[in-house]
Structure formats: structure tokens, C-alpha cells
Write a structure and sequence with these properties.
single chain; alpha/beta; five-stranded parallel β-sheet; 10 helices; 10 strands; elongated
């Protein structure tokens, strides 16, 4: 869970596929910059370092408002919004030097704020934002599937189950979660996993999709069927060569994927949305 030299992760909101391809290509060729950036996949559960938003799209601005951007997770608007918003903006057509200067400035501010934070408290700090502080766009963009999930009862006790044959990731995760009193179980097969989640309350199941004799999407669907009355998150652990099958994942109600190489604070932030973290 350690990756200190990774490019900064950006969550794109409201851009067309063509624009996204242009951004991806530009980020790819700018390998000599001191600060580098990459776009998070829509299915990645990793929390972004910042948001990049199409300011000409009202729906994108409404989504951004729900994300509660701040100095720790800032937003950069591209275009000219119809509303007066307290975010850094770069105009269209995009001048790449200006865009990178804006990104770098926001990241510098974020790094200063992070230096003042206790990494073990990051998930708690971001887990319950004060929604009363910001004027909101009154648009309900919630996926109907999310309303169904909200009706499902949350587990009374947080516990994480890792399905993997390697113990290193599990040991690192257990150390990170010990501060929040969240036990981490570890098994190496689907049968052993079934024994655990049949006898114990589990909040999150993390699956290595490369395990032999395991189809991660079928396993996810099986676990979800067996826990229809309890909220349980299923997350796949990704390596560089992993290709997330969005269609199969959605059919199996998989909650997304995470890189197993995230650092501790990023992992806590990503998993914290599925836990009632406490110290």
C-alpha cells in the first residue's frame, strides 16, 4: 500500500469521451514535469487528489457540489460557469500551460494542508463533511440503485475480509485499520471466505481477481445474494495488468476496484466510505 511517487489522481466530471482522450494523451506526453497527473477510471474507488470539471455542463457542477471540494481535495473548472462559484477556473479553448499552472497551484495548496494532517485521521476528517456550509444546486442525480442500497441495513460491527493468497497486503491493511478498531480477516479461497462471512458480520470484502479457480464477478454476485438484507461492499484489488469489466461488475453489483499499492491514507479514504470509522 505504498506508492509515494505516483502521479496525482484526477477525477473527471462532465467531459466528453473525445475531451477525455485529449487529456489522457496530454498527461501521457508530459512525463518530464515535476508534477504529473493521471485520470482515475470511473470505476476506481480511489479518492482523487483533485477534481477537473466541465464548467459548461450544469449537471457536472451539480455533481461537484455533492463532492464537497475543499483545499484538501480541490476543484478546477474548465470553461465559464453560468453561476458564480468559489473554484479556480481556466477558460476555453484550453491553454495547456495555464491548465498545468492551475493544477500545480491547487496541488501545492493541498500538500501544505496535508502536511498539517495526521494520516491516520484522514478518513475520519473526510467521512462526514458539513453540508450546511455550501450553497447547493438543487438537482437530484442519485442513481436509483443507490436508493436501494440506502434501504439495506448497515453492519453493526465493522470488519474487513481479504480474499488473497498473499498476506502482505492484509498485514499492511490490518495495521492501518487497527487505529480505527476494524479487524481484518484473511483467507485464500472462496470456500474459506464463505465460512467467514457466514459466521461473522463483514462490512467489506476485498478480492484478488487473479486468484486461481475464482471468478471474482461470480464470487461477488454470490456474496451479494447471500447478504441481501445487510449492506456489504465488494471491492476488487487491482494490479497494473488488471482490466476491470464494467458490465460484469455492474451485473454482479460489485462496488468498484482499488489498487493494492495505494498508500495508507489513500486506502483509508477509499474504504472509509463503507465503514463507520471510529477510534
Amino acid at each position: 500500500m505504498k506508492n509515494h511517487n505516483a502521479p496525482f489522481a484526477i477525477r473527471f466530471i462532465g467531459f466528453s469521451a473525445r475531451e477525455i482522450n485529449i487529456f489522457d494523451a496530454t498527461f501521457s506526453v508530459e512525463q518530464n514535469r515535476e508534477k504529473q497527473y493521471h485520470r482515475l477510471s470511473a470505476d476506481s474507488l480511489q479518492e482523487p487528489d483533485l477534481y477537473l470539471v466541465n464548467a459548461d455542463d450544469l449537471k457536472a457542477l451539480a455533481i461537484l457540489a455533492d463532492m464537497e471540494p475543499n483545499n484538501l481535495r480541490p476543484a478546477l473548472l474548465v470553461g465559464t460557469p453560468d453561476l458564480e462559484l468559489p473554484y479556480t477556473t481556466v477558460a476555453r479553448p484550453i491553454r495547456w500551460l495555464k491548465l498545468f499552472e492551475a493544477l500545480d497551484g491547487l496541488i501545492e495548496r493541498r500538500l501544505v494542508m496535508l502536511a498539517k494532517q495526521n494520516p491516520s485521521d484522514m478518513a475520519l476528517a473526510h467521512g462526514a463533511p458539513d453540508r450546511r456550509r455550501r450553497e447547493r444546486l438543487d438537482l437530484d442525480l442519485t442513481d436509483p440503485v443507490e436508493y436501494e442500497r440506502m434501504r439495506v441495513q448497515s453492519p453493526q460491527i465493522d470488519r474487513i475480509l481479504v480474499i488473497d493468497t498473499q498476506s502482505t497486503f492484509r498485514d499492511d491493511l490490518a495495521m492501518a485499520m487497527a487505529h480505527h478498531v476494524v479487524p481484518v480477516e484473511w483467507v485464500g479461497s472462496a470456500d474459506a471466505a464463505a465460512e467467514v462471512y457466514a459466521s461473522q458480520t463483514i462490512s467489506i470484502v476485498l478480492i484478488n481477481p487473479h486468484l486461481p479457480n475464482i471468478d471474482p464477478y461470480d464470487l461477488c454476485a454470490t456474496i451479494k445474494r447471500q447478504h441481501q438484507d445487510t449492506r456489504i461492499a465488494i471491492v476488487l484489488l487491482a494490479d497494473k495488468d488488471f482490466v476491470y469489466d464494467h458490465a460484469r461488475a455492474r451485473e454482479a453489483a460489485c462496488d468498484g476496484f482499488l489498487s493494492r499499492h495505494l498508500d495508507q491514507s489513500q486506502m483509508l479514504l477509499a474504504l472509509g466510505k463503507f465503514l463507520s470509522l471510529r477510534r
